[in-house]
Design brief:
Elements lengths: L12 H5 L10 E2 L10 H11 L11 H21 L6 E4 L2 H13 L7 E5 L8 H10 L2 E5 L13 H4 L4 E7 L11 H10 L3 E5 L11 H4 L3 E5 L9 E5 L1 H5 L24 H15 L9 H28 L4 E3 L9 E6 L4 H10 L2 E2 L1 E3 L4 H7 L7 E5 L6 H12 L5
Parallel strand pairs: 1-11, 3-4, 3-5, 5-6, 6-7
Antiparallel strand pairs: 2-8, 7-8, 9-10, 10-13, 12-13
Helix pairs in contact: 2-10, 3-10, 4-5, 10-11, 11-14
Length: about 400
């Protein structure tokens, strides 16, 4: 059983679970890395906006003013979440689409012979847009490799990878497949020393750790609200001065100001209300938290880390003790996420058996194609992934452990 945290800064999981109508289905939702459940305040915020007059921004009547307020509110909320500036928050449909847009814009500043450094640990959304942009511009891609035994991304290798020709380093703040949390700050410091920009995928890190863009050393931070109890909206956060010199594809009549020129099409204003509500949800997870929303986020995410960490230690140790289970990697710092295989069973079979026991778990490569190719598991269907969230309980971890212990080839 996990160690219980002290009352100070405690996360009351019973209270938290009461905020999620979806938990009434009786399943153990251990599929958080693919997308979290949505609390009632987020659903209510989205529904409320859809019941009121909303018009495009820029008008002189109240419905247009509401749209402006929703955009401003969402940008402020995301800025609070990552420690950025609202004027540098670009909103969009998802992290992948936004990363493609930034990659195309940055690639216009690259020249043949330039280099970029990518990581085999990353989700393909922080790999393929850069690979394709590099191919289109004659830029060389250099790779940071993963230690296949530990699942770590050693920061020391960047000293050999970075040169004065390096224009960009793209790296994850946390692997959504193994949970690995690399030394992003150390990598970023090396990148900045040679004049390179740093693009950090914080999609998987955001639900589990308190983010601070300055401490990470990130020029760009990408997040997705549906991973932290919000709607399907993505965001990329940068210093407005960095965005100012980029020229993304846009329609001629669309605004040319930053960050608006990076946002194409009609915005989903109702979902932006959900983004703000989701950040408020995270900030309210610790009942004792006080101060600004940023202060409350700091306290709440510390409580989340203690709660999830205790549960995950139990889950991780229990699965590693099972002779028929192989847990991939063993990173020193990680989110409450792991991937594993079961002797004699395909990952899809394992996921199906867990589903029969009322446990939601994904199988496959989780878009970590480079990583799973390096680990050598893709030919066998990848792995099974379990990921905990702040609404998971010790009883649920017990159910998972018992279910995995009982897995045997049919």
């Amino acid at each position: 059983m996990p160690r219980m945290s002290s009352a100070a800064g405690r996360l009351d999981v019973a209270r938290v679970r009461g905020l999620f109508p979806a938990l009434s289905d009786g399943y153990v939702h251990a599929d958080g890395p693919a997308g979290s459940l949505v609390p009632e305040n987020v659903a209510h915020a989205v529904g409320s906006v859809m019941r009121m007059p909303i018009a495009p921004r820029g008008g002189v009547f109240p419905a247009s003013g509401r749209a402006e307020a929703l955009v401003t509110g969402a940008r402020a909320a995301v800025a609070d979440l990552v420690g950025g500036r609202p004027g540098g928050v670009v909103l969009g449909p998802n992290m992948t689409s936004l990363t493609y847009a930034v990659a195309r814009a940055l690639a216009r500043t690259w020249r043949p012979g330039d280099e970029i450094v990518l990581s085999r640990l990353d989700h393909d959304a922080n790999v393929r847009p850069w690979v394709q942009a590099a191919a289109a511009t004659g830029v060389q891609v250099r790779w940071a490799e993963v230690d296949i035994e530990t699942g770590e991304l050693p920061a020391w290798q960047y000293a050999e990878l970075l040169t004065r020709r390096t224009r960009l380093v793209a790296v994850t703040a946390a692997s959504s497949a193994l949970g690995t949390r690399p030394d992003v700050a150390g990598i970023a410091a090396q990148a900045h020393a040679v004049g390179a920009l740093v693009y950090v995928d914080a999609v998987h890190a955001a639900p589990h750790v308190f983010l601070d863009q300055a401490s990470l050393g990130a020029d760009f931070v990408a997040v997705s609200a549906h991973k932290w109890c919000g709607p399907h909206v993505g965001a990329v956060v940068a210093d407005p001065d960095v965005l100012e010199y980029l020229r993304p594809d846009k329609l001629l009549p669309a605004p040319n100001r930053v960050p608006d020129r990076f946002e194409t099409g009609s915005p989903p204003y109702e979902l932006y209300a959900g983004v703000s509500a989701a950040v408020d949800h995270l900030a309210g997870l610790c009942a004792e938290a006080a101060g600004s929303r940023r202060d409350r986020l700091r306290a709440s995410m510390a409580a989340v880390a203690r709660h999830e960490g205790g549960l995950f230690d139990w889950l991780d140790q229990a699965l590693r003790a099972m002779r028929h289970v192989q847990v991939l990697g063993e990173p020193e710092r990680c989110t409450p996420t792991l991937s594993f295989t079961v002797a004699g069973m395909r990952p899809r079979q394992v996921a199906a058996e867990l589903a029969r026991d009322g446990i939601c778990a994904w199988d496959g490569d989780f878009y970590a194609r480079e990583l799973f190719d390096a680990l050598g598991v893709n030919d066998d269907g990848g792995a099974v992934r379990l990921g905990l969230m702040h609404y998971n309980t010790a009883d649920e971890v017990g159910r998972i452990v018992d279910a995995v212990a009982g897995l045997r080839p049919r």
